[in-house]
Amino acid sequence: MNWVRKIGVFTLVVLLAACSQEQQPTGPRAAAKIEVGYIELKSQPVPQTLELRGRVVAFATAEVRPQVNGIVRSIAFAEGREVKAGDILYQIDDATFRATVAAAEAAVKKAEAATVSAKTTYERNKALAETKAVSEQTVEDARSTLLQAQASEEAAKADLEIARIDLGNATIRAPIGGMIGVSSVSVGALVTANQTAALATIRQIDPVYVDLVDTSANFLRIREAFETGRLERKQGVPMSAGLTLENGTPYKPKGEVSLADMVVGQTTGTFTVRAKFANPERILIPGMFVSASIELGTLANAFLVPQRAVTRGDDGKATVFIVSADEKAVRTEIDTDGTSGNDWIVTAGIKAGDRLIVDGFQSLSDGLAVTPVLATIDSDGVVEQKLATETAPEAGK
What we know:
By secondary structure, this protein is α+β, with helices and mostly antiparallel strands. It has four domains: 33-46 and 301-390, conserved putative lor/sdh protein from methanococcus maripaludis s2 fold (Beta Barrel), CATH 2.40.420.20; 49-59 and 205-299, Efflux pump adaptor protein, beta barrel domain (Elongation Factor Tu (Ef-tu), domain 3, Beta Barrel); 66-93 and 170-197, CATH 2.40.50.100; 94-169, Helix hairpin bin (Helix Hairpins, Orthogonal Bundle). The protein has four helices and 20 strands. The strands form two sheets. It has a six-stranded antiparallel barrel. The two termini are 48 Å apart. Residues 207-298 form the Multidrug resistance protein MdtA-like beta-barrel domain. Belongs to the membrane fusion protein (MFP) (TC 8.A.1) family. Residues 301-362 form the Multidrug resistance protein MdtA-like C-terminal permuted SH3 domain.
């Protein structure tokens, strides 16, 4: 009975093994690969831009202050409107200044008359001295009197000029053209020469400056790119810049970088880049927050890699999957240098002709066999061509 039982157990094991072998897939189904969409990489010159943030600054600012003392008799401008250089802004009571000018003019006439008399006396004594009718001392005294009269005349003329300047300063004019702000005084107010508080402020806002802030580390990176030749730029052509307003609207006129301050803040580690923009429609207002894109140059041999194809690990390093010659997914580390639209700008780690996996890579691992299918990506980064698995019937049906 024992040998019969052993034969039965052996037979059961053999049957189970046979069933197990029949259930395991063989042939094409066992060798099925993951289908992935890929694009072929091509190197190309890629414009390199620098994205910075900053604020709008007036092209010129003038704080209007009185240069003489007096009472404001009239205000000749509308607050918040544009004024031109030389326009009358304030009129200070000038009665005292007119009287001072009249007195100075009279003093000049008196001094001129004294000069004429002294000159006549000197010339007469000089002629008499030739005939020994008067002494040399008399001639010297006459000459001294003439010089004093001429000096007094020059002083009187200077006093007249000062009086006329004060009279002119009683009319306060715009030193520059631009938008004028709120007046800090009203008619009847007493103002003093060179007072601390400005009567009004004029800001020239066409064109305007935009002060942008960048880090010193980024500055060194860009400088190295130029020095090594990786970043190219035409000599003598200023860097252009584009703006984006606070509401996300692009600002149409392009600007150009006018200067870069070569002083790094000791506390912030940043420096200022200034760009100049035309502002004919007065859209840009001093103090407005904007974003700028500065065109630095061109990366000669770079790659545009769709952002969807790039993943980053915990260490922050960027990687992509490349289809190898034996049709396996190979994880490759890349170096990125900013973005262009929906693409990463890649400068190292890949080469022309590589097949970059852009779809179906979510479940991939390094070295996994794949079935590559050519795909295309539109400008929004969406894969337009469907993979074969989306249209082909399931295997075994």
